[in-house]
Amino acid sequence: MFDSPLSASAYDLLAVASTATDDELRKAYRVRLRQTHPDTGGDAAVFIQVQRAWELVGTPEARAAYDRGHGFGEASVPDFSASAGWHTPSAPADTRPRARSHGQPGGWRRERYLALVREWVGRGVDLPDPYDPALVRSAPHHLRRLLADALAEEATARIVADLGMGYTVWHDVAADLRGGDPETKIDHIVLGPSGLYGVLSEDFGGPVRTRRGELIGGGVGGAPIAELLARLRAVARAAGVRFGGAIVVLPDDDVTSQIEELGKVRGTPVAVVGRSALSTVLRRGVTGARSIGGNEVFDVRTRLQHTVRFV
After folding, report:
1. Which residues make Cβ contacts (< 8 Å) with residue 135, sequence separation at least 6?
2. Do 247 and 230 form a contact (C-beta atoms < 8 A)?
């Protein structure tokens, strides 16, 4: 709930400044409980959020840990690209078999965020931590959205990597193969026994629903599913492959159902899933998607390797 650049912080939910004293924080919590309690006409969902916010900052120890760790820095995903302009912190060696991975998840949006946030702050201004939560939350919405989407892509990459060596994933794949618009990309292409999928990782900063095969919600702009399917068709034509389905991954708190299958949208099976359900969906497949096995896996992988370009 509080780990997205687009979401309210614990202090925002309590309607108090992050510099408030412990006494001011406690008073604010009591006021917010009365304001949001369902018995007094408040919103039950916000009431729960207020209680969760208090758990995070209600004691000096918890507050210190929250203030220290509540940033939006580089997540611990493997650094797949030597040319990436940012690098992840080192982590203990993991000897489990991993999915074959190509490209840098979230890399393009990370780079774009870093460039634009420095431009927004102003040239010549010292910017020791571009991921400082106070800075991020004060930034314009389009900058916070860039970072939120980068974090979402990195979270998906970690999940797919754990599927094992039977899977191959390409991140940040250019769908405009003529090299035009870098934003015309596919976040992830995943190949495994359950099929070949195009995956869109998003964080719209709030609840998302579906209607007539498309996403709707306060933070949703354009037609994300239609745009994803169009990009999949472009790559499929170039590579001579057929995508079995499309998957949209959203934060767990932003979906009403962890797995919602929309059936065929423009001829392609589509599922909208909460992040924690992604592994299950990729292992079992989307209803109506064609599974892939034997030599076909090698053929599809080879075709994509020869075709895929990264943004």
Report:
1. 117, 121, 127, 129
2. no
Tokens found for residue 113: 């965020």
* Helices 224-239/295-307 angle, 10° precision: 100
How many Å apart are CA 38 and CA 32, to the nearest integer? 12
- The answer to whether 220 touches 207, Cβ cutoff 8 Å, is no
Expressed in angstroms, the distance from the first to the final Cα of the chain is 30
Topology of domain 10-69, per CATH?
A: Helix Hairpins (1.10.287)
Question: What digits encode the pLDDT tens for the residues 253-297?
Answer: 889 899 999 999 999 999 999 999 999 999 999 999 999 988 999
Supply the mean pLDDT for the chain: 88
pTM confidence score: 0.82
pLDDT in tens, 201-235: 999 988 899 999 999 998 899 999 999 999 999 99
- 7: how many CB neighbours lie within 10 A of its CB? 20
Closest CA to 5 of 127, 109, 159: 109
The encoded tokens of residue 103 equal 């490209």
> What is the phi/psi pair of residue 91, to 5°?
-135, 160
Per DSSP, the three-state class of 35 is helix
Q: Where are the domains of the chain?
A: 10-69, 100-307
Query: What would the pLDDT profile of 7-64 be if each residue is shown by its tens digit?
Result: 778 888 899 998 899 999 999 999 999 999 999 898 877 888 899 889 989 999 988 8
Structure tokens at 201: 């990782």
Token digits for 295? Answer: 């030599």
Please choose, from the candidates 158, 129, 155, the residue with its C-alpha nearest in 3D space to the C-alpha of residue 70: 129
C-alpha span between 90 and 275 (Å, rounded)? 24
What residue has token string 């592994």?
Answer: 279
- Rounded Cα gap, residues 20 and 53, in angstroms: 14
